[in-house]
Amino acid sequence: MYQKFDVVIVGAGGAGLMAAMQLPNASVAVLSKVYPTRSHTGAAQGGVAAALGNLEEDHWKWHMYDTVKGGDYLVDQPAAEILARDAIDAIYELEHRGLPFNRTPDGRIDQRRFGGHTRNYGEAPVRRSCYAADRTGHMLLQTMYQNAIKNQVRFFNEFLALDLLINEGRVCGVVALEIRTGEIHTFHAKAVLFATGGYGRAWRVTSNAFACMGDGMAIAYRRGIPLEDMEMYQFHPTGLYKVGVLLSEGARGEGARLLNGKGEYFMERYMPTLKDLAPRDIVSRCIIKEIKEGRGVNGEDYVYLDLRHLGEKVITEKLPDITEFARNYLGVEPIREPVPIQPTAHYAMGGIPTDNDGRVVIDSKWTPLPGFYAAGEVACVSVHGANRLGTNSLVDLIVFGRRAGKHMARFIAENDHVPLPSHHEDFAREMVDHLLTSKGGESAARIRNELQGEMLENVFVERQEKGLQHAMDTIAGLQEAYKKVQLQDKGKTFNTELVEAIELGFLLDCAAATVHGALARKESRGAHYRLDYPERDDVNWLKHTLIYKGDGACEARLDYKDVILIDDPIFKPKERKY
Amino acid sequence: MKVTLRIKRFDPDKDAKPYWAEYTVEASPVDRLLDALNTIKWTIDGTLTFRRSCAHGVCGSDAMRINGRNRLACKVLIRDVGEKVTVEPMLGFPVIKDLVVDMDPFFRKYESVKPYLITYDNEPGTERLQSPEERARYDEGTKCILCGACTGSCPSIWGNPDWVGPAAIVNAHRFIFDSRDQGTAERLAILGQRNGVWRCRTIFNCSDACPRGIPVTDLIEQVKRAIVYGDRNID
């Protein structure tokens, strides 16, 4: 079926909905492969940062500094300035739209400490994270969805995007599968925003939902658009042991501490100032080091998160959900027992390269692809650099989702639709028909399982040449095997086996791009830690990776793009200590 | 341990009516029921169809009827259900395929109660003030993940699919008792109608079903009292 809109937004999480909010006078379609309230924004827990200074002195420039330093100086600094400045107004806008923040005794938005957020350029932790218990993302997603209903936004629920349409040098639409009927639809648009989230399901231990399969990144990649800094993938320090479900950094913000098998609170040994509130890349590395040196619990591959000293009142009032996760999935009572945790795949700092208005830029010279936008985890602004600070993901959604929406409003006022390319549904139809008719005998589940194991083994917190090459070879083999995937379900109606197989194709492309970037970057920076190149190398590597898909399934071409620094000595790259 | 799942199946493209299928899989007592469903889908029968996403009880995708009660498949552990477990789609919703039900009517009802903050005053330059006590007044309703477990467990819905149902009322409550909101009268007028709160017969199935521990029936009663007394401050 063919439909025509001014704007098509793919993804109904925080970024997509925030963008939709900026387009009250346009015809907008929001496509989501799940009902909007199922989007993974809803799983965010600890908070959303803004230098409101409700409880102690704070300034946006301190927030900007923490973001730049937290990202190990791979952050484009003007973008970090926008993030930190705009966060303040964005939080007030969310409050005005109804978001039920926790409150201070005098009725203002309450704020808590969070990893890497400091006062006066690194002196001590600062209370900057605005929060709603430990379900801030849930509250944000609900609030955005409620406002979308109020504004009568048109949703296409359970539509899986398959392809991006480009013609005459402009993006002009999206082809999608209606999951319920199996129909292929073309959405013709002046502007397209991808807000499809991340690809955390590439790892076996992950905090990410089943939906986080890298759809938007892979669709763009297949159409010749580069992916930026894919080697920069965040492993959150505190996932529930084996399950991967997140225990919010908000717990440590409230005072919880990491404990090794010998009963030592080990973070104070590594990071004397911020201790347990050091940024995530550092804390995850410290945990892996403790485990490798035999100080895991009972010699196993986990340590504890200790909340006991917080007391029952703080735990039940401020951290109720994560407490229940520990109880339900591990049978551990956090009020009385320490909780087994391990690092878990969490967040893509990299993604589709954009400028500060969400416009997708396709080379090292920042050339835009007109009509194409990206925001949220799928995008790389780059505001998170080599390591995102906790709470900055939600800030990213609202700040850059809003800017992308506003820019699209201007773009559609000044531009008409370009015609669709000829045979515009062929690529998507071939993808679907091939999977539905293949008799290759291969199992998508087997391929996915092997990929997830390989990524956890060789593309995790610590990396080195040999392991990365092994991962590359494995993924190349899996890409070949993928061509032979055969389905049991050949039906049209709600064929989730088909959906899973299509998503697996996306995931393989994202994983391949990640390994290409990681193999090439011969230094350690932020989340990308190379045992064989343990130092940061600003002379050769203070630059963004751009990965273009090559001809073969697993081939790629790499290019690089300068990091944008501003002329202010405070932000000059220096050694990162906490 | 071995677990046998008895699952109600229906594919509208192939089946004239629903039927029961049995699968036996290997599972650990601390696995989620969702893990067992995935094991079936990935190793035995790829046609088995259900929704899932976050897999830890916060997105609301996988509400289904498990041993006769509406639960999230990702929150129920194998040790909670034992070696034999019966899984069906939720009652009160049209079935699309296997365990997947049509949630569109459910969301239409949610939308009908104006589930968004309504204000008529100018917005202040910073946040609106709200005391921790005022914030606590509507906290329960903010936990709702719109999974439909409450609505699908309600005999009043089974008897009258047009009824607005517990989930929509919970979400109305979340705004009716929010000190910042100025739309109370509009919402109470909607909920005072024929298919509003009064079809609730205080059966408490909804409170039992809620995976977020919301005291659903209690919240519905609070809305009833607000309608009777015309004031959200009387409790």
Feature tags:
heterodimer; A: about 575 residues; alpha/beta; Flavocytochrome C3, Chain A, domain 1; Methane Monooxygenase Hydroxylase, Chain G, domain 1; 8-stranded mixed β-sheet; 4-stranded antiparallel β-sheet; 16 helices; globular; B: about 240 residues; alpha+beta; Ubiquitin-like (UB roll); Fumarate Reductase Iron-sulfur Protein, Chain B, domain 2; 2 domains; 5-stranded mixed β-sheet; two-stranded antiparallel ribbon; elongated
Entry summary:
Chain A: It is a peripheral membrane protein. The complex is a heterodimer of chains A (578) and B (235). Chain A is built from 16 helices and 22 strands.
Tell me what you see in this structure.
The complex is a heterodimer of chains A (578) and B (235). Chain A is built from 16 helices and 22 strands. By secondary structure, chain A is of the alpha/beta class. Among the domains of chain A are: 1-43, no CATH class; 236-343, Succinate dehydrogenase/fumarate reductase flavoprotein, catalytic domain (Flavocytochrome C3, Chain A, domain 1, Alpha-Beta Complex); 426-551, Methane Monooxygenase Hydroxylase, Chain G, domain 1. In chain A, strand 7 (159-167) and strand 8 form a beta hairpin. Chain A starts with a strand and ends in a 16-residue tail after the last strand. Chain B is elongated. In chain B, strand 6 (95-97) and strand 7 (100-101) form a beta hairpin. In chain B, strands 2-1-5-3-4 form a 5-stranded mixed beta sheet, covered by helices on one side. Chain B folds into 2 domains: 2-101, Ubiquitin-like (UB roll) (Roll); 104-229, Fumarate Reductase Iron-sulfur Protein, Chain B, domain 2, CATH 1.10.1060.10. Chain B contains 10 helices and 7 strands. Chains A and B meet through helix 3, helix 4 and helix 10 of A and helix 1, helix 3 and helix 4 of B. Chain A: One of its GO terms (biological process) is anaerobic respiration. Chain A: FAD binds at residues 11-16, 32-47, 215, 377, 393-394.
